[in-house]
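Structure first, sequence second, as always.
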């Protein structure tokens, strides 16, 4: 009976997190669900504390990545990169799509798929709107490459750190194990997007965008991410 109640409460918590009734943030619903499981003694306090303790390294990593991503957003790094993509695209929406997709692969590999989906996507939306092109293919590229490239490196997806927490393979072993699959995933997603979005990628870019100079604080954040 206890296990059934745990499943019911957990599923309700996940549903509330996804639906966000009354605009309440996701973390409040899911954190409240976890607290409720402890208060009802369906989950022993000692078990909850042990679970938190086991995930400390993952939490610290996620906090660091989120701080990096937020600093990059605040300093305009993502929008600057998107501006560069538009600048290199000339008047071709198809070339712009290639650049956006490539940037998405790099951001996902180095900063996690969450950074691509949550931080890079709004920057891309702002830039393609200024370029006066249909934003849908580029937003789909950001959304889908976040999954396609999520196994390039162990840090490319926070779930990797959870699944492999106690037995994370060395980097070279990881690349040997997942490298080919990642390349195939990235390539297959690209081809699928190009085929399904080909009509929206026709024509030309109506408005040119001058790439602004990244301020010194933005360059410092970019260097930090690179390091």
């Amino acid at each position: 009976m206890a296990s059934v109640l745990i499943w019911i409460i957990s599923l309700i918590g996940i549903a509330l997190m996804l639906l966000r009734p009354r605009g309440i943030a996701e973390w409040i619903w899911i954190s409240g669900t976890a607290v409720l499981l402890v208060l009802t003694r369906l989950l022993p306090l000692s078990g909850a504390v042990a679970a938190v303790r086991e995930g400390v390294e993952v939490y610290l990593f996620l906090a660091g990545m989120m701080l990096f991503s937020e600093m990059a957003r605040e300093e305009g790094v993502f929008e600057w990169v998107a501006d560069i993509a538009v600048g290199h695209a000339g008047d071709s929406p198809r070339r712009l799509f290639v650049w956006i997709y490539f940037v998405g692969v790099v951001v996902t590999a180095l900063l996690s798929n969450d950074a691509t989906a949550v931080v890079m996507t709004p920057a891309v939306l702002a830039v393609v709107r200024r370029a006066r092109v249909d934003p849908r293919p580029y937003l789909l590229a950001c959304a889908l490459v976040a999954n396609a490239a999520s196994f390039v490196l162990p840090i490319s997806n926070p779930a990797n750190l959870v699944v492999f927490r106690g037995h994370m393979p060395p980097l070279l072993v990881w690349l040997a194990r997942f490298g080919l699959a990642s390349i195939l995933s990235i390539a297959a997603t690209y081809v699928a997007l190009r085929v399904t979005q080909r009509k929206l990628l026709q024509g030309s870019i109506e408005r040119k965008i001058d790439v602004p100079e990244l301020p010194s604080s933005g360059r410092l954040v970019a260097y930090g991410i690179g390091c």
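Margin note: The mean pLDDT is 84.
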